[in-house]
Amino acid sequence: MKNADKPVVAIDIGGTKIIATVVNRKGEMLSRVYCLTLSEQGPEKVISRLISLIRLVVNRCGYEMKEIGGISLAVAGLIDINRGLVTVAPNLPHWEDVCLGDVLHDEFKIPSFLLNDGSAAALGEHCFGAGIGIDNLIYMTVSTGIGGGFILDGKLFNGTDGSAAEVGHMIVMADGPACPCGQKGCLEALASGTAIARMAREHLMEGQESSIADIVGDDLDSVTAEHVAQAGKKRDAVALAVIREAAYYLGIGLSNLVNLLNPQMIIIGGGVSAMGEMILRPARKSMKEHAFRLPAYTVRVVRSKLSPDSGILGAAAYAYLKLGGGR
């Protein structure tokens, strides 16, 4: 049997946990396991756990490694896809220029592939989710940070090195709030879950009354975007004001993408997307106010159908593309 006909191991490496699955050509998950990343222990120990997890997930579905066509990993960070290299991963401390692809290939003697998690999610939605049949789409994950991926003319666009579609680091407010990347005014610093939590804390520290405070008690540092969403559903004024502000800047980011790429669809995933129309409706409004009329009214802005599995299924689809089996 050719590798392109065999199931593949698809993995999502995050700052908190590593999820490993065995996936077939139809996008069906045959087994699924996870472990804590414990990234503070450094790359070597994380990779050791990853190798054990791969063996476990393959064993769980009754396969041997020789029956697996390839291993494909979705990682949050800047990926050099040509060399299978994690160059920088903000959620994985001390991960700089880690040759993860080579390590796994040497360990298992089967093809191993690496790509950015946003690009993986875009491919997952294109092959199995909301973007089936859509040749020009943008995927944007709005969570702790903001990432993305592009499908252009029916193909995943990675850029020269694999670092394309870092949509969270468009500057949407000159000299705006500091972003973890070191710049100021990035979309991530104004519309991510982290930004929403920060803005809510600022309102509460100014003494504004809000049911958010009732949810978290006196521990304002524990405020999250989920708490803001809970309060927003109850029509809390502070929560709704924060969500509207985040949506405004999200819409500016969307307008830049719409003007630049004229996509048919923008798919929003990630934890913040669970707010649904509470954030998407004002974001669409802001997008239409800032973008050219024709592309703004052509594009559909929708929620992910696969989240939180978009990246895993996209990693599997990427493996099949690289193995020559298409999708």
Structural features, described:
- The protein is built from eleven helices and 13 strands.
- It is globular and about 60 Å long.
- α7 crosses α8 (237-261).
- β6 (85-88) and β7 form a beta hairpin.
- It has helices at residues 43-60, 100-108, 117-128, 187-191, 193-205, 211-216, 225-233, 237-261, 277-290, 293-298, 310-322; strands spanning 8-13, 17-23, 29-36, 71-75, 78-80, 85-88, 96-98, 112-116, 137-142, 146-152, 155-157, 265-269, 300-303.
- With 327 residues, it is α/β, with parallel strands linked by helices.
- It folds into two domains: 3-117 and 309-322, Nucleotidyltransferase, domain 5; 130-303, Nucleotidyltransferase, domain 5.
- The relative contact order is 0.15.
- A five-stranded mixed beta sheet has the order 3-2-1-4-8, with helices on both faces. Strands 11-10-9-12-13 form a five-stranded mixed beta sheet.
Task: Produce the secondary structure layout.
Elements: E1 8-13, E2 17-23, E3 29-36, H1 43-60, E4 71-75, E5 78-80, E6 85-88, E7 96-98, H2 100-108, E8 112-116, H3 117-128, E9 137-142, E10 146-152, E11 155-157, H4 187-191, H5 193-205, H6 211-216, H7 225-233, H8 237-261, E12 265-269, H9 277-290, H10 293-298, E13 300-303, H11 310-322
Parallel strand pairs: 1-4, 4-8, 9-12, 12-13
Antiparallel strand pairs: 1-2, 2-3, 5-6, 6-7, 9-10, 10-11
